[in-house]
Amino acid sequence: MSLPVLAFAALAALTVGAAAAPAAPAGLDAYRWKARPLVVIAPDAADARYRTQMEAVSAAQAALRERDMVVLPALGPDSPLRKQVGSGSAAFQVVLIGKDGHVAGRWTAPVALPDVFALIDRMPMRRDEMRRQGQ
Questions:
Q1: Would the pLDDT of 25 be above 50?
Q2: Which letter does DSSP use for residue 92 in this model?
Q3: Domain containing 50 — which CATH number?
């Protein structure tokens, strides 16, 4: 692995909480009713699409936290998350999971996070959250 790839992998590993968290032993079920997982599926951390998506994630920490999002990398063909979200053999995918566990969005290229946030903000549960928070 080259130094830039190692540095990026370290950055991705450090963005915990809203941005990147290891998959829980129970998988996506551990996040049900607590968070909105954004699963980023790629062959490995060196994939240009993965790096692009994770750079966007790093730049959007506050917006991710505001929406109770957690970003879960699913690297390699044997990632258990790949099977859980039904990505099949896709080389790259971004999958948004709602708090209720349904697949709310699926993209086959890096997605602009404002588009993801707009999708989430239209969800009934998120609208209720915004009302309660006075937004």
A1: no
A2: S
A3: 3.40.30.10
